[in-house]
Design brief:
Strand 7 (about 210), helix 10 (about 220-225) and strand 8 (about 230-245) form a beta-alpha-beta unit. This protein has a single domain (about 5-320), classed as Alpha-Beta Barrel (TIM Barrel), CATH 3.20.20.80. The chain has helices at about 20-25, 25-35, 50, 60-70, 90-95, 100-115, 145-150, 150-165, 180-195, 220-225, 250-270, 290-295, 310-320; strands at about 5-10, 40, 75-85, 125-130, 170-175, 200-205, 210, 230-245, 275-280, 295-300. The radius of gyration is 19 Å and the shape is globular. An 8-stranded parallel beta barrel has the order 1-2-3-4-5-6-8-9, surrounded by 5 helices. Helix 6 packs parallel to helix 8 (about 150-165) and helix 11 (about 250-270) packs parallel to helix 13. The chain is α/β, with parallel strands linked by helices. The structure holds (3S,4R)-3-hydroxy-2-oxopiperidin-4-yl beta-D-xylopyranoside. (3S,4R)-3-hydroxy-2-oxopiperidin-4-yl beta-D-xylopyranoside (XIL) binds near residues 13, 14, 44, 128 and 289. It is an enzyme of class 3 (hydrolase). It comes from Brachybacterium avium. It catalyses: Endohydrolysis of (1->4)-beta-D-xylosidic linkages in xylans.
């Protein structure tokens, strides 16, 4: 059955106002996380900049707290993320390491982090956002691809699989909801890796949608072609933003359109065999990354800040 997940806000990033850390400072919010969801993801707390304050240290305190919370509430977890071009610590991006050293750093990180949660993680986003919107590999912007070459992609999956043979290992990206050149590129890459025996188990689309751009109608067809390769699929970061000129409230029409997007994504997930996880990238607008990242847009989550329900909440329920 489909797990419905939520990203746990916090880690000090992109809150539109200076709130205390939601996960430690907001009990009603924690209750919603526990009550409404069967899966959790760390919005920031398992990224490199959070786990790796210095080259030779790990700080697992926030990540462990989320894992403990999930276990106490009978929830599964998705790990996010091991190899990415963003949110890497300065010591890494600006350090003067040889390729051999970088390879060792990455290998050791994956073994340590994946190993720590082995047996407790349902899915891992091993490799995140390696293609840009022109469907080209980020061979200059991604430190690992730049310094180590594209062969490092297979190594990441192999190292993660060694550290946790149970976890399902995913490629994750945005703007790959429907069939387009970027999702085509993933499809071709996955095919090659599987032919080489690389342990890739899943393909996930983040699902950062905006009602401004229209709904990607071919989500089921896109996910199905990955299922046909033998992969699981997932929607990992769903939110549906809208234009909100300064101070504006969403109109009823906007909220209906948003609800329709949430409904259709839920229906898409349900319609594809092997799509077992649908995660919302936040549940309250005040903790959402959207207003800080997309100026003039907001209201992307399914609850109002007072915890009352938007039409989108009911739309998901209706679809399930
Ligand atoms: C975002 C978080 O939501 C923000 O708090 C943070 O400041 C930046 O990252 N794709 C991803 C996520 O894979 O990790 C990103 O999360 C959103 C886009």
């Amino acid at each position: 059955t489909l797990k419905i997940g939520c990203a746990v806000a916090g880690g000090g990033h992109h809150l539109s106002q200076p709130y205390p850390d939601p996960f430690t400072g907001d009990d009603p919010y924690r209750e919603v996380l526990a009550k409404e969801f069967t899966s959790l993801s760390a919005e920031n707390q398992m990224k490199w900049d959070h786990l790796r304050p210095a080259p030779d240290t790990y700080d697992f305190s926030d990540a462990d707290a989320i894992m403990d919370f999930a276990e106490a509430n009978g929830q599964v977890m998705r790990g996010h993320t091991l190899m990415w071009h963003n949110q890497n610590p300065a010591w890494l991006e600006e350090g003067e390491y040889t390729p051999e050293q970088l390879r060792e750093i990455l290998k050791e990180h994956i073994a340590t982090v994946v190993g720590r949660y082995a047996g407790h993680m349902q899915q891992w986003d091993v490799v995140n956002e390696i293609f840009d919107d022109d469907a080209a590999l980020r061979t200059s912007g991604n430190i690992w691809l730049r310094e180590l070459g594209t062969g490092i992609i297979a190594d990441c999956f192999r190292w993660a699989h060694e550290a946790d043979p149970e976890a399902l290992l995913f490629f994750n990206d945005y703007n790959v909801d429907g069939i387009n050149p970027k999702s085509d590129a993933y499809h071709a890459l996955v095919k090659d890796l599987l032919a080489d025996g690389v342990p890739v188990h899943g393909f996930s689309t983040q699902g950062h949608l905006s009602i401004r751009y229209g709904f990607p109608g071919d989500i089921p067809e896109n996910l199905q072609r990955f299922a046909d390769l033998g992969l699981q699929t997932a929607i990992t970061e769903l939110d549906v933003r809208m234009d909100l000129p300064e101070g504006d409230e969403p109109t009823p029409e906007q909220l209906e359109q948003q609800a329709d997007y949430y409904r259709r994504v839920t229906e898409a997930a349900l319609s594809v065999e092997g799509c077992e996880s649908l995660t919302l990238w936040g549940v309250l607008d005040k903790y959402s990354w959207v207003p800080g990242t997309f100026p003039g847009e907001g209201a992307a989550t399914v609850l109002w800040d007072d915890f009352s329900r938007k039409p989108a909440y009911d739309a998901i329920q209706d679809a399930l």
